[in-house]
Amino acid sequence: MCRRKTTKMKRSWQEATQDDSDLGEEDIEDWSSVASSILVSPSSKNTPQQAAFSREHPPLESDHSRTIVHIDLDCFYAQVEMIRNPQLRAQPLGIQQKNIVVTCNYVAREFGVTKLMYIADAKKKCPNLVLVSGEDLSHYRDYSEKVTDLLQSEFSSLVERLGFDENFVDVTSLVEKTVPGDQSLVEVKGHTFGPEGQVACICGCHKRMAIASHIASRMRARLREAIGITGCAGIAWNKLLAKLVGEKNKPNDQTTLLPGSEQKLMLSLGHARRIPGIGHSMNKKLESAGIVTIADLQRASYSDLEAVVGSQSATSMKNSSFGIDNTAVTRSGPPQSMSDEDSFKLCASLNDAKERMYNLLNSLLESCRLLDSLPEAEGIYAMLMIRKRWRTPLTIRLTIRKHSSAKKWLRESRQTQIPVSATEQIKKGIFTVHGPLMEVLLVLFKKMVDVEQSFHLTLINVCLTNFQAKSTFSKSLDKYFSKAKNIENERKSESEQGAADICKKTTDDSTNNPKVLTNQQDSNITQLFEKQGRRPLQTASKVLENKQNKLSFFTRKLPSDVKTTSKSDPHQGDGELSQGERDKTATLSRTRYSVEVKNDKPIDKPEGDISSETGPSFAKSDEVEKDFLVVTSSREQTSEEMSSSSHQSLEIPGNVDVTVFKSLPLDMQADLLREWKVQSTRDMAPEIKTSSALSSQPSTSNRRITDFFTRSKETR
DNA sequence: ATGGGTCCT
DNA sequence: AGGACCC
């Protein structure tokens, strides 16, 4: 079934490509034929005509060229609390926010406690329920970042966060570079969804899914070893299917979608609302058109659907209903905003509001302060010095919710620029700017609330956003990036050729897609000058415990990428360009992967029983992995490269790659040298308290820093 | 519902 | 500034 197109589809494809003048207006009414044809996409396809076609119409083919793993952590908040206090593991645990249990552990679930249950109801079901307040999300954010960081640094640079407890990982290139050394590893690990013994798809996707299932298993094992957290994985060829199939075996398990079973998976969901992206309002529109189930959605004519929800939604919903999803896994960068909010029954006086705003603001600024001071706690590492104070918010937003019988959920907001005086202070690392910020918050407040009249608020939210790089090198960076773009373009062609050889695809001409501009994301220079996201409130020692994770979690997307990367075009990022990026990132992550396998010891063994499919085989899994993960074109560091820095100028730390260093703009080099000079004299001083805390894992830190610098070799 | 987030219009 | 979506 996977093998060929139906005659009908073939014909419409040919018509479409031969005469693209009437492509634009042609509707595909017979969607049932799509449903019944599971089609292989030779993923190198896109002639300009075909590209034009696919922009106007939903893809008619199932694209198996990518391999995606979706990781969904089990009852995340509850798990974090159980890690923090292992005694809770044996007890029914609920995480409480205000009046509700937002989530609970599986012990509590056996009593019938569920998510979003009122406290009173939960207590009725389970009188011994232990409740832990989950209103402060700092710890959850912290563990969430650790998870993303691990996946990103050990498996693929393409990791997309969804909330705190979900991550999509594009493992396409890891899979492509993996040659099974053992026939048994071609079998899917863990559960499968769909019947065995299907006709093999000629694109080799079944094998890729099988390899990915082993990678997913490895991911889950690493999450347990390193962080002590469990979760589910879904493995498929796009984000939609990976996410949906992962839910089929919960908790702490994994499910691989077998090619050809996507229709069964989609129909198994029943209601159209189960499709991610179809929310409350879309669902209402659909219901008004008599579309309730996913089968209804599949059957609905495109023109009817378009009339109800618009053409863009119609296209993506149609695609989704058949399990087709071409959206790329987009690397999540550091947070775009930081907010703190409080909800309550009643806030009716200005003083009360002021106090609440102050508390929220104070909490935000304290987070900023800890975040900013972190690099100093790290001690001697140059990268961290550069990264210091890299992000500063330019705008502040106040959101309130007024009590009203009609629209209880309605929020109002006003935002304004943060006073430049405060911005300047923050840039200097001074966070005692409560005064000026309270003044602007008060102005915003009075824009929404007439304080002369009586009022009744039920929520206040303060949000810092519109982060700006605090660079003193911005001119140099611009110069560097314009150069980097050219480098990227050259590299892209090479890797496309390489990918073509591996995948037996034909490469097309490399058009000047705007996506090229975002390819610099992977430049280690970009990452090097990445900005930090929010850090939770923590003690200094806590911060040190986590430093390893902080380092690479925040080495992602620049804010400018957010603007240049369009998610609205589902076809962007799916062509050869992203293939180029994939190729490169694979090499990077594989290099790091092998280092991890060799050097890493479990950092934090989880408490309690960890018996699971992966549990007992930890010791063995490294060996398995070595046989299994054989990379065809990975470029390992030569010993010369490794030691090259050691005989360089004394002013450059030994863990810094000189070649990379020299590629930096001159003034940046100068600034770095100055930083290092300052640091090395500081190191001589007796007051290094952090060094003992660091000494528990010094090699790890060194390695990470080295990775940082060695990365850009791959891009040159 | 809660306490966050994302992007688009 | 609000609205949609996600968890």
From TrEMBL:
<feature type="region of interest" description="Disordered">
    <location>
        <begin position="39"/>
        <end position="61"/>
    </location>
</feature>
<dbReference type="GO" id="GO:0006281">
    <property type="term" value="P:DNA repair"/>
</dbReference>
<dbReference type="Pfam" id="PF00817">
    <property type="entry name" value="IMS"/>
</dbReference>
<protein>
    <recommendedName>
        <fullName>UmuC domain-containing protein</fullName>
    </recommendedName>
</protein>
<feature type="compositionally biased region" description="Basic and acidic residues">
    <location>
        <begin position="593"/>
        <end position="608"/>
    </location>
</feature>
<feature type="compositionally biased region" description="Low complexity">
    <location>
        <begin position="691"/>
        <end position="701"/>
    </location>
</feature>
<dbReference type="InterPro" id="IPR043502">
    <property type="entry name" value="DNA/RNA_pol_sf"/>
</dbReference>
<feature type="compositionally biased region" description="Basic residues">
    <location>
        <begin position="1"/>
        <end position="11"/>
    </location>
</feature>
<dbReference type="GO" id="GO:0003887">
    <property type="term" value="F:DNA-directed DNA polymerase activity"/>
</dbReference>
<dbReference type="InterPro" id="IPR053848">
    <property type="entry name" value="IMS_HHH_1"/>
</dbReference>
<feature type="compositionally biased region" description="Acidic residues">
    <location>
        <begin position="17"/>
        <end position="26"/>
    </location>
</feature>
<keyword id="KW-0237">DNA synthesis</keyword>
<feature type="region of interest" description="Disordered">
    <location>
        <begin position="555"/>
        <end position="625"/>
    </location>
</feature>
<dbReference type="Pfam" id="PF21999">
    <property type="entry name" value="IMS_HHH_1"/>
</dbReference>
<dbReference type="InterPro" id="IPR043128">
    <property type="entry name" value="Rev_trsase/Diguanyl_cyclase"/>
</dbReference>
<feature type="region of interest" description="Disordered">
    <location>
        <begin position="488"/>
        <end position="525"/>
    </location>
</feature>
<feature type="compositionally biased region" description="Basic and acidic residues">
    <location>
        <begin position="704"/>
        <end position="716"/>
    </location>
</feature>
<dbReference type="GO" id="GO:0019985">
    <property type="term" value="P:translesion synthesis"/>
</dbReference>
<feature type="region of interest" description="Disordered">
    <location>
        <begin position="1"/>
        <end position="26"/>
    </location>
</feature>
<dbReference type="InterPro" id="IPR036775">
    <property type="entry name" value="DNA_pol_Y-fam_lit_finger_sf"/>
</dbReference>
<dbReference type="GO" id="GO:0003684">
    <property type="term" value="F:damaged DNA binding"/>
</dbReference>
<feature type="domain" description="UmuC">
    <location>
        <begin position="68"/>
        <end position="279"/>
    </location>
</feature>
<feature type="region of interest" description="Disordered">
    <location>
        <begin position="687"/>
        <end position="716"/>
    </location>
</feature>
<feature type="compositionally biased region" description="Basic and acidic residues">
    <location>
        <begin position="558"/>
        <end position="585"/>
    </location>
</feature>
<dbReference type="InterPro" id="IPR001126">
    <property type="entry name" value="UmuC"/>
</dbReference>
<feature type="compositionally biased region" description="Polar residues">
    <location>
        <begin position="509"/>
        <end position="525"/>
    </location>
</feature>
